[in-house]
Amino acid sequence: MEETARWLTSEEQHAWRSFVRLHEKLGGRLARLLQTQSKLSAADFAVLVQLTDVPEGRQRYQDLARELEWEKSRMSHHIARMAGRGLVVREECLEDARGAFVVITAAGRAAIEAAAPLHVEAVRSLFLDHVTPAELRTLGEVSERVVAKLDEDQS
After folding, report:
1. How distant is the alpha carbon of residue 90 from its chain centre?
2. CB half-sphere exposure, 84, CA atoms < 13 A
3. Domain definitions of the chain by residue range
4. So what CATH class is 16-154?
5. How far apart are CA 79 and CA 141, in angstroms?
């Protein structure tokens, strides 16, 4: 039996397209500012942020890829480019010969420490300054609920 598509209502379509457009415009603007101000791509920044959030600034390739929602090949190629610029290093996993770690370097820490204040100011001026505290709480709640469902469906 053929399923019928659950088409979006005009209100749903408007909200969805507005969200997508916000995501695209905000992401693009933040990426350009990062590149211009810090010489880091949005992908570099995402990797460095993730590594600064874990103990010892090191994470297994597969865990980092999962956190960033990246395919294995994208992760390998991007980490190789970052390693070539001295931002990270690859360490073999002694317990598992098939595994490896990505580790932030001193240069990587310096890069993220220089970029973070500029990025935070851009997030404030481009986004946070234009929403109320109540809207921000609602956005946080909605985002957490959708991400939890996505994580649940991935397992």
Report:
1. 20
2. 6
3. 16-154
4. mainly alpha
5. 32
| Strand 88-92 with 58-60, pairing | unpaired
What is the torsion angle, in degrees rounded to the nearest 10, for the CA atoms of residue 131, residue 137, residue 139 and residue 142?
A: -170
> Please, which residues bridge with residue 58 across strands?
103
Q: How do residues 51-107 score in pLDDT, each as one tens digit? A: 999 989 999 999 999 999 999 999 999 999 999 999 999 998 777 666 899 999 999
**pLDDT, the chain, mean:** 94
- The DSSP annotation for 26-39 comes to HHHHHHHHHHHHHS
pLDDT digits (tens, 9 = 90+) for 123-134: 999 999 999 999
Instruction: Average the pLDDT over 103-131 and give the result.
Output: 97
Whether the CB-CB separation of 39 and 118 falls below 8 Å is answered with: no
Provide the token pair at 36.
């211009």
Task: State the Cα–Cα distance between residues 137 and 65, nearest whole angstrom.
Answer: 28
H or E element in which residue 151 lies = helix 133-154
